[in-house]
Amino acid sequence: MGADTVRGRAAVVGVGLSEFPEVPGWSHFELMAQAVDRALADAGIGKNDIDGVFAVVDRASLPAAMVSEYLGIRPKVLEGTMLGGSSFVNFLQWAALALEAGLCEVALIAYGSNARSGRVRPGGTVPIPYESAYGARLVTSYALAAARHMHQYGTTRAQLAEVAVAARAWARKNPKAMMRDPLAIEDVLRSRMVSDPLTVADCCLITDGGGAVIMKRADRAKDHSKKPVYLLGVAAETSHQGIAQMEDLTVSAAARSGPRAFAMAGLRPEDVDVLALYDAFSINTLLFLEDLGFCKKGEGGAFLSGGAIAPGGRLPVNTNGGGLSCLHPGMYGVFTIIETVTQLRGEAGERQVRDAKVGLAHGNGGSLSTQVTSIFGTAETL
Amino acid sequence: MTPGPELTYQNYLAAGEFRIQRCDQCAKHVFYPRVLCPACGSSKLSWIRPSGTGTVYSTTVMRRKAESGGDYNVCLVELNEGPRLMSRVEGVPPQEVKIGMAVNARIASGGDEGHFVVFDPAGAAHGR
């Protein structure tokens, strides 16, 4: 289970966001380094303290080496496992274990992307030979999942639109979010269709942006200026790479990663105060709420209705505005961690969820291919 | 040395035959072509001729400007033998491709893509 070696053993002591959503003239490594610089300042340590690097950067084939070179450090632990957008949530597991094993003392999880200014389309992977003839794009897989969910459970486009509308309502409380104009269900339904049933408003933004997270062993995490936020559980799962191989398009591997992460944390969905779910598309949020156990399979549409995950609703989800309305470079996963830490520290300003003690950050990668669930808590949850 | 499963599949298509694998050990049908059966792990896989009939499992209309060729269909088809593949249904407008529609396989070719499998509607759509 891993509970003994993970639960409460490591903590986030620093987080940093680069400038976003549009930073022309800045490369992906520069945005990564700006985020790292801010995370180091947040933790009150220097770059030479970092001795573990966990990084994936758009278009970098040796990301951990390149991040280390850029920062001028020679870490003892180098990790760059590519799971797509969930990679950073997955790094939490390996960083926690490396810290617990004494392989390193200060772990850096880092990411940077200039997907918007550099005009880099996300999902630039080697084409699947049996799929390349049909003109599928990244959105296609998610549209196929949404269409199947609608067919199987009667989910409506208006219910999916609730996800985008809630994200926007949260973004309006976040001064840094990219999209802050009001958005109504009708606006989503009337937006330009991209891949039925998903409109452009059901699809994430393409922005620039970097993010960094610094972790230490829990017993060494208290001598920093900010309250440590403890990792309570984490689990990674996969069900396929190409969408044609996904056994049931209405059930993601989050149905397996979620229960494992909760078991490790010794918690249940009803214990979670705030969620950050990787919302590359509106269907993601719906699927993950079902798969992680916040409602029953097939009932996600009804669950979302009436602003349930919007400010003032019963479950705060994607309080920064998410990938749909705040930022989404090539890969969003690191930002789910940063927003969760921000909430559990009580630093979220106007969008702060009151008394947030337990937060869930969930990463998605590829075509719903990789799912990684992490659960964080404040000191009182230990 | 005989070619690997991917090239073997392509060679069959180029010769006008749509073939998929069937595991000699567990009898499961396999697509895409593999060296090992993804169900039981056996490396004894035989090439069979599927019925060519299947059902649309999910479908989308990829929206595209008219000057770039217009909207097109992308779907997942579940073959009667079990495996699912990405494809498109031709012969009807993309928005008329429905989940549950019965379809028949046909080999198409074009451009850089060599030979690939597309589907035609087999008859009236039905739920499943």
Question: Would you kindly provide a written description of the structure presented here, covering whatever features stand out?
Answer:
The complex is a heterodimer of chains A (382) and B (128). Helix content of chain A is 32%, strand content 18%. Chain A has 12 helices and 11 strands. The longest helix of chain A has 16 residues. In chain B, the strands form 2 sheets. Chain B has a 5-stranded antiparallel beta sheet. The relative contact order of chain B is 0.18. The C terminus of chain B is likely disordered. At the A-B interface, helix 5 and strand 5 of A face strand 4, strand 5 and strand 6 of B.
Give short descriptive properties of this protein.
heterodimer; A: 382 residues; alpha/beta; Peroxisomal Thiolase, Chain A, domain 1; 2 domains; nine-stranded mixed β-sheet; two-stranded antiparallel sheet; 12 helices; globular; B: 128 residues; mainly beta; OB fold (Dihydrolipoamide Acetyltransferase, E2P); five-stranded antiparallel β-sheet; three-stranded antiparallel β-sheet; 1 helix; 8% helix
SSE inventory with pairings:
The complex is a heterodimer of chains A (382) and B (128).
Chain A: H1 3-6, E1 10-17, H2 28-43, E2 52-55, H3 63-71, E3 77-79, H4 87-100, E4 106-113, H5 138-153, H6 157-171, H7 185-190, E5 193-195, E6 198-199, E7 209-217, E8 229-238, H8 254-265, E9 274-277, H9 282-291, H10 300-304, H11 322-325, H12 333-345, E10 358-365, E11 370-377
Helix pairs in contact in A: 6-9
Chain B: H1 5-14, E1 20-23, E2 29-30, E3 45-48, E4 53-62, E5 72-79, E6 84-87, E7 102-109, E8 115-121
Antiparallel strand pairs in B: 1-2, 1-3, 4-5, 4-7, 5-6, 7-8
